[in-house]
Design brief:
Elements: E1 5-8, E2 15-16, H1 18-31, H2 39-45, H3 50-57, H4 64-81, E3 87-88, H5 92-101, E4 105-113, H6 114-124, E5 131-135, H7 146-154, E6 162-166, H8 169-178, E7 181-185, H9 192-197, E8 203-204, H10 207-214
Helix pairs in contact: 1-4, 3-4, 5-10
Pfam families: HAD_2 (PF13419)
GO cellular component, one term: cytosol
Protein name: Phosphoglycolate phosphatase
Length: 216
């Protein structure tokens, strides 16, 4: 196999987290008498971290101090409910197991708050990732390559021996900024047309196709 490490995004790539994200967002909005958002709106808001999700979800012109309160309320609720409706995509566990059985490292790099990444990886993929990291204080989030580069350093792997698997334009940009290959998936929060309009050269539509791409 060409690659020594496969780095995955989380939301929309290995886990369908949309309903829990929407529920916690709408809970936080309702606490402050703000209009709730639809699932489709939340789908398009996700990808740049929870803070950006809150900025997009609140009504235009909401003061910064109120956005902070909505964010805090979301966090408190999501910590308790992040796994209520979240589920792995069909075939994802088998894909990760195939990669590991080939002697290749596996990792998660997400813009999701780090607490969420740790909880969900432990709950749904125990022992299947060598490294998992989310958004943390002082580390620039994707599409900056900082967290991806940290993973490559951790395992002493050159970027030419790494591939990033994701579902959004942020992931396309992250891989480009890190100088590594990218495998975009079409089952997540963005459709194929949108991904190709935003720089994706190739989109897979099943974990089996992803395995063929990774194992080429």
């Amino acid at each position: 196999m060409k690659y020594k490490i496969v780095v995955f995004d989380l939301d929309g790539t290995i886990l369908n987290t949309l309903e829990d994200l929407a529920d916690s967002t709408n809970y936080a909005l309702s606490v402050f008498d703000m209009p709730e958002r639809t699932i489709e709106e939340i789908r398009h808001f996700v990808g740049n971290g929870i803070r950006k999700l809150m900025e997009r979800a609140v009504p235009q012109g909401t003061p910064e101090s109120m956005i902070v309160k909505v964010h805090e309320t979301f966090t408190e609720h999501y910590k308790k409910h992040c796994a209520d409706k979240t589920r792995p995509y069909d075939g994802i566990k088998e894909l990760i197991e195939n990669i590991r059985n080939s002697g290749v490292y596996t990792a998660v790099v997400s813009n999701k708050a780090d607490y969420g990444v740790q909880i969900l990886c432990k709950d749904y993929f125990p022992g299947l990732f060598d490294y998992a990291v989310g958004e943390r204080e002082g580390i620039r989030r994707k599409p900056y390559p900082d967290s991806v580069n940290e993973v490559l350093r951790q395992f002493d792997v050159d970027r030419t021996q790494a591939v990033y698997v994701g579902d959004s334009e942020v992931d396309v940009q992250t891989a480009a900024n890190a100088g590594m290959d990218v495998c975009m998936v079409g089952w997540g929060f963005r459709d194929e047309e949108f991904l190709k309009d935003n720089g994706a050269e190739f989109v897979v539509h099943s974990p089996e196709e992803a395995w063929e791409f990774i194992n080429k």
